[in-house]
Design brief:
single chain; 344 residues; alpha/beta; 8-stranded parallel β-barrel; two-stranded antiparallel sheet; globular; disordered N terminus; signal; GH
Length: 344
């Protein structure tokens, strides 16, 4: 090591141009403090301008969403239901998207962490994602397709999917958005596997506190490092403080807000909020939960819809942003100033 240091000093003298490099970190990145998060539905494969705007918006975490596991082991983006991104354990998706995702952390940028959200079925929908995680973590499950290798070993279907998420897409964490299956043993087992692949696991609940607590309690310390709490739609009445107390953990709980433009509406629906309303809620949440250190916005597609529909003109009470970049910065500011107690 001393020899390398001496050589580096020698090469940095005279007419040499010296470029320092750090070895790649072997540890997955933890959330920033404050952690200002944007869920990224509407970003696959996306376009360069969208990614450039996000890098300049002030958000520190981007959660690529939403992605679904199908019965044959293929993985699809919610933005493209016809073409898988993972097939037979290999990445087969859009190559340019990988470059765009990688660019999120490339300077100049405020983004320090990238997650990917695995979304499950809602009620009365066909099985997917968490049904299959439940079935496939169990090596004794019968009747699975020939394309599936059960368990969580290095030759298993779930392992190969997760390895693509880490090695090809470059995510720091897998976000669990289970809204129907609620089988904690399989998620604990799945989490142990992704931990071995050098990723964190985060949780995205809106109900059933005991289910999520069971995952935290059954997981290796440090694996789960964030809880993103849905404070809209089915989670409209949620606030972070009771969840933090019920989970009985030091893991940070970040509220997720639905922005105006959601569900193709300019007006309030499903508890969508304006930037000013989000800031006031952040102030309120912070009073009850002083340790709160971040918040999140759902989602990039809705941000774009707000501008596309001309909501500032159609529904002036919804806000005044007239461009995607302006709206992103307003939403980011609402989270940041809310944390600082700036309620005016």
């Amino acid at each position: 090591m001393k020899t390398l240091l001496f050589l580096s000093i020698f090469l940095c003298t005279g007419a040499f141009i010296c470029v320092y490099s750090q070895p790649a970190s072997t540890n997955p990145l933890s959330p920033a403090d404050p952690n200002l998060t944007l869920f990224g539905r509407g970003m696959y494969p996306g376009d360069d301008s969208t990614y450039t705007m996000i890098k300049a918006s002030g958000f520190t975490t981007v959660i690529l969403s939403s992605f679904y596991i199908h019965a044959d082991g293929d993985v699809y983006s919610g933005d493209d239901s016809k073409n898988p991104i993972i097939h037979n354990g290999e990445y087969v998706g859009n190559a340019t998207w990988l470059k765009r995702v990688a660019s999120l952390k490339q300077s100049p940028t405020t983004v320090t962490r990238i997650e990917i959200l695995l979304e499950g079925r809602w009620y009365n929908q066909p099985p997917n994602t968490y049904d299959f995680i439940k079935d496939w973590t169990d090596t004794t499950t019968k009747g699975v397709p020939a394309t599936i290798t059960t368990g969580t070993g290095t030759n298993s279907t779930l392992y190969n999917i997760s390895k693509v998420l880490k090695d090809k897409i470059g995510v720091d964490a897998v976000c669990i958005d289970d809204e129907s299956v609620y089988d904690s043993p399989s998620i604990i087992q799945f989490g142990e596997m992704i931990g071995k692949l050098n990723m964190h696991m985060t949780l995205c609940p809106f109900t059933r506190k005991q289910y999520w607590k069971a995952i935290i309690d059954g997981s290796q310390r440090g694996l789960v490092d964030a809880v993103y709490l849905q404070c809209y739609d089915g989670g409209t009445r949620n606030t972070p403080a009771p969840w933090h107390d019920s989970l009985a953990t030091n893991i940070p709980v970040y509220p997720i807000f639905l922005c105006r433009g959601a569900f193709d509406k300019c007006a309030t629906n499903h508890n969508s909020k304006t930037p000013d309303e989000i800031k006031l809620e952040m102030v309120r949440f912070k009073k009850d939960y002083p340790a709160m250190s971040g918040g999140a916005i759902w989602q990039m597609a809705d941000v774009k819809n707000y501008i596309k529909m001309g909501c500032s003109a159609k529904e002036p009470a919804s806000g005044n942003a007239t461009s995607v970049s302006e709206y992103l910065k307003q939403l980011n500011t609402s989270l940041k100033e809310g944390l600082q107690g700036m309620n005016k």
